[in-house]
Design a protein that fits this description.
heterodimer; A: alpha/beta; Rossmann fold; Coagulation Factor XIII, Chain A, domain 1; 2 domains; 6-stranded mixed sheet; 5-stranded mixed sheet; about 25% helix; globular; B: mainly alpha; 13 helices
Chain lengths: ~425, ~280
C-alpha cells in the first residue's frame, strides 16, 4: 500500500438532474406536508438529496464503476469530452463532493487546483489575498509567510502587492492567483484545466510549474483538453467517456483514441457541420461549418502529400471586430501538432463583420506523408482571449501519388516529408 | 510537508447516519477560520465612506429612535435608568445577535465558489460570519463606556459576567446560523424569511422594554427566548437594573444548548450535499 498514492475502487457518483430547481420547488411542499403530517413532512427536510435509488427517473450517473490505482510519483492525465466525468472525479478525490458508490483511498496530503484565484476577494490587497487563498488551499500561515517573497517574485507584481486586486490587470491577477497555488507543496497535486485561462506565456509558465512538481517526484492528476500538455506532462492517461473509464494506458495511445473519437471522418469538398462540437473559448466568434479541398480532381479532391490544401472556415461573429490570430491546425493521430497555419505568423490581421464570414486558408505545399490527420482551428485576439478553439474537428486523409514516381515508402516513415536529394560525392 | 504523518484517507459515500464533530480537523483549519473572519471584517467596511463607524452608528441610531418613540412618546418604563442607556445596553448584545444571524444565514450561499472548489470543514463559514461581528460589538461597547458617565450611570461588579453572557449570545446566534445557513442552501426562501424572524424576535426580547413588565411565572417562560436572559443580564451588569432570576438564565441556557446542538447535528447531516446543490 505504501507505494500507492490513490486507489479508486468501483467509484460512482449520481446526480439528480436539475437538482437545484427540483429542491427549491419542494420548499412549499415541505411546509404543506409538515403542516399536514408534522413528522413525515419534516423528515423531508432531512432527506438525502442524492441518496441512490429514489426517483431514479431523474437521476444520472456522472461517474460509474471507476477503478484505478495511481502509484506514488505517477503523473496521470485525465482526458475526455466535457461532461465525461473528469471534474466530478477530481471533486470526489478533493473531498468537495462525496461519491454515491464505491470508495477511494488517498495516501498523502492533497492539493487541489480546481480554479485559479480561489478565495480571491477584489476588495483585498494582493498580500491579503495571498494569505487568504493560501489558507483555503490548505497552507498554514507559516508556510505562506516563508514562501511569500517567492510567490510575489513568480507573479511579478511586487510593486502592487499592497494594492487591492480589483485594480490589477487581468494578467496580473491571474499571475498572482496561480503563483499562490504553484507554491503549494502537496504530496498529491490535482489540477483541473487551470491552464485554459490566460495568455500563451502564462500558460507556458503554469505548465512549466506543473512539470516541476512532477519532476520533484510528487503525484499529479492532470485534467486538460490540451492534448499537447497532457502528452508532455503525463506518461500515463485515463480516458473517461460518459462517466466510465474506457482506457487506462500510456498517454500516446489514450490520446490517439480520444482524438479518433472526437473527429468525424470527413470527405473533401463537402460542408462539415461543426456547430454542435465541444469547444473552448468565449464563443463570440464561432465556426459553424468547415470545408476543405486538395484542389486535385484526379484524387477526388483529397489533400495530396506535397500538394495544396484549401480550408474554409465558415464562422459566425456576434459583432464586427479585428482578429489577430486565426489558425488551422493539423495533428497527427498521436496528438502531435504538425501544422499551425496562423495568421499571426504572417504579421497580419483580418476584419470580421457581424454575422456570417468565410475565411479561406490556402496551404501551398502540404509536407505531410500519406495518412490520416486531424484538422482543428484556433481563433483569438492578439491579447490572447480565445474565441473558439477546437483541436479535433475533422479526420482528413492525405493521399500519396505513388504513380508520380516517388518510389516505395519505407515502412517506418516520418510524419512529414521534405524535398531532398541523395548523391554520392566524388572523392 | 511530512507525508509520513498523514494517514491514508478513505473516501466513501456519505451515510445518512449521525455524524460526530471532527474536532481535530476543525483545529487543523483554525487558521482558515481566522482568515475568513478577518476577511469578513475587512470587506464589510471596505469602500464605505464611514468604515468602521457603522459599527457605532447602527446601535446608536437605534438608540435614538427607540428613545424618542418608546421612551418619550410611549413612556415605556426603564427600571429607573435613563432610557437611552437602558436601551443601548440591550442593543449591544441584540445588534450583535441580529447581525450574526442575518450574516451567517447568507454565509454559505455567499461563499458558494469556495464550497464548490475547495475542501475544508464547512462549519468554518457560518462560524466566521458570527465571529466577525465581535469586532463591531467591541467598538459599540467602548462607545457605551464613554456614554455612561454622561448619563451618570456606572457599571456594577456584574460586568465580570459579561463574557459568559456574550458567549450565550454567540452560541445562540451560531446555532441559529447553522440551521438557517444550511436550510438556505436548499431553500433560498430562508433569506427572505430571516429579516422578519429577526424583527419579531426583537419585540420578543426586552430591548425596548424591561422584562419587569411581565409578572412571574411568565417571566421565566420568557427565558425560552435565550436572548431575553442575555439582554437582561447585560442590563443588570452594566447599568445595575434588577438581576435576572436564576430560573430565567437556566431556561435560556437549556434552550441555547438545544438550538446549538440541533443546529450542529442538522448541519453535519446535510453538509455533504452543499457542493452539489448550492
Amino acid at each position: 500500500m505504501s507505494d500507492i498514492a490513490i486507489r479508486v475502487e468501483n467509484l460512482g457518483k449520481q446526480y439528480r438532474i436539475g437538482a437545484r430547481r427540483a429542491l427549491r420547488r419542494t420548499f412549499a411542499e415541505s411546509i404543506a406536508a409538515a403542516a399536514a403530517a408534522p413528522f413525515r413532512g419534516l423528515r423531508r427536510l432531512f432527506r438525502d438529496a442524492d441518496a441512490p435509488g429514489r426517483e431514479s427517473d431523474s437521476m444520472v450517473w456522472a461517474l460509474r464503476h471507476l477503478s484505478f490505482d495511481v502509484a506514488r510519483g505517477d503523473v496521470v492525465g485525465i482526458v475526455g469530452h466535457n461532461g465525461a466525468g473528469k471534474s466530478t472525479l477530481l471533486k470526489i478525490l478533493s473531498r468537495i463532493t462525496s461519491p454515491t458508490a464505491g470508495s477511494a483511498v488517498i495516501c498523502g496530503r492533497v492539493g487541489s487546483l480546481l480554479e485559479v484565484g480561489i478565495g480571491f476577494h477584489s476588495e483585498l490587497t494582493g498580500r491579503d489575498n495571498v494569505f487568504l487563498s493560501g489558507a483555503i488551499l490548505g497552507m498554514t500561515r507559516r508556510e505562506i509567510g516563508r514562501r511569500f517573497d517567492e510567490i510575489v517574485d513568480f507573479a511579478e507584481v511586487d510593486k502592487f502587492i499592497d494594492t487591492p486586486v480589483k485594480f490589477y490587470s487581468s494578467g496580473m491577477y491571474l499571475r498572482l492567483a496561480f503563483a499562490v497555488a504553484a507554491h503549494l507543496e502537496p504530496d498529491i497535486l490535482i489540477v483541473d484545466e487551470v491552464l485554459a485561462v490566460g495568455d500563451v506565456n502564462f500558460q507556458r509558465k503554469c505548465l512549466g510549474k506543473v512539470d516541476d512538481v512532477a519532476k520533484e517526484g510528487r503525484t499529479v492528476l492532470f485534467v486538460s483538453h490540451n492534448m499537447q500538455a497532457v502528452q508532455r506532462l503525463c506518461p500515463r492517461s485515463l480516458l473517461l467517456e460518459r462517466g466510465q473509464l474506457i482506457a487506462d494506458s500510456n498517454t500516446a495511445d489514450v490520446v490517439a483514441r480520444y482524438l479518433a473519437q472526437v473527429a468525424h471522418e470527413t470527405s473533401p469538398r463537402s460542408l462539415i457541420d461543426v456547430s454542435a462540437m465541444h469547444r473552448r473559448g468565449t464563443g463570440e466568434i464561432k465556426v459553424a461549418q468547415i470545408w476543405y479541398s486538395g484542389l486535385d480532381s484526379s484524387v477526388s479532391f483529397r489533400p495530396r502529400s506535397r500538394g495544396p490544401l484549401e480550408v474554409r472556415l465558415d464562422l459566425v461573429s456576434a459583432i464586427s471586430r479585428t482578429i489577430g490570430s486565426i489558425a488551422i491546425t493539423i495533428y497527427d493521430k498521436n496528438g502531435t501538432k504538425l501544422v499551425n497555419a496562423d495568421l499571426m505568423s504572417l504579421g497580419k490581421s483580418v476584419r470580421i463583420s457581424a454575422g456570417r464570414n468565410v475565411v479561406r486558408f490556402t496551404i501551398h505545399d502540404l509536407f505531410l506523408n500519406p495518412g490520416r490527420y486531424i484538422l482543428g482551428w484556433w481563433i483569438s485576439d492578439v491579447q490572447g482571449t480565445v474565441f473558439d478553439f477546437v483541436e479535433a474537428a475533422a479526420d482528413i486523409e492525405v493521399v500519396g501519388l505513388d504513380s508520380a514516381g516517388f518510389g516505395i515508402r519505407p515502412s517506418s516513415d516520418g510524419a512529414v516529408c521534405c524535398d531532398f536529394a541523395v548523391e554520392v560525392l566524388p572523392e | 510537508m511530512q507525508s509520513q504523518d498523514v494517514s491514508p484517507l478513505l473516501i466513501v459515500p456519505a451515510s445518512a447516519g449521525r455524524r460526530y464533530l471532527d474536532l481535530r480537523e476543525l483545529l487543523r483549519y483554525r487558521e482558515l477560520l481566522y482568515f475568513l473572519t478577518w476577511r469578513d471584517i475587512k470587506v464589510r467596511y471596505a469602500q464605505s465612506l464611514l468604515g468602521a463607524a457603522w459599527a457605532v452608528l447602527q446601535p446608536l441610531l437605534a438608540m435614538v429612535i427607540f428613545s424618542v418613540f418608546f421612551g418619550k412618546l410611549a413612556s415605556i418604563p426603564s427600571d429607573g435608568v435613563p432610557y437611552p442607556i437602558f436601551t443601548y445596553a440591550a442593543l449591544l448584545p441584540w445588534t450583535f445577535f441580529s447581525n450574526a444571524v442575518v450574516q451567517s444565514t447568507n454565509s454559505l450561499v455567499g461563499n458558494a465558489n469556495l464550497i464548490t472548489k475547495a475542501y475544508f470543514p464547512r462549519l468554518i463559514i457560518p462560524c466566521a460570519a458570527v465571529l466577525s461581528g465581535l469586532v463591531d460589538f467591541a467598538i459599540a461597547f467602548v462607545v457605551l463606556l464613554l456614554m455612561m458617565p454622561f448619563f451618570g450611570v456606572f457599571p456594577t461588579g456584574g460586568v465580570l459576567w459579561l463574557p459568559v453572557l456574550l458567549s450565550f449570545a454567540v452560541l445562540t446566534s451560531l446555532g441559529m446560523g447553522l440551521w438557517l445557513s444550511a436550510l438556505n442552501v436548499q431553500f433560498r426562501d430562508i433569506r427572505h424569511i430571516v429579516p422578519f424572524l429577526v424583527q419579531a424576535w426583537l419585540f420578543a426580547t426586552p430591548v425596548v422594554y424591561p422584562s419587569s413588565l411581565l409578572a412571574e411565572p411568565w417571566r421565566t417562560v420568557y427565558g425560552l427566548n435565550p436572548m431575553a436572559g442575555v439582554v437582561e443580564g447585560f442590563r443588570w451588569a452594566l447599568v445595575g437594573t434588577q438581576s435576572p432570576s436564576v430560573a430565567l438564565i437556566a431556561v435560556s441556557g437549556v434552550v441555547t444548548a438545544v438550538i446549538l446542538v440541533s443546529g450542529l447535528s442538522y448541519f453535519r447531516r446535510v453538509e455533504h450535499r452543499f457542493s452539489d446543490i448550492i
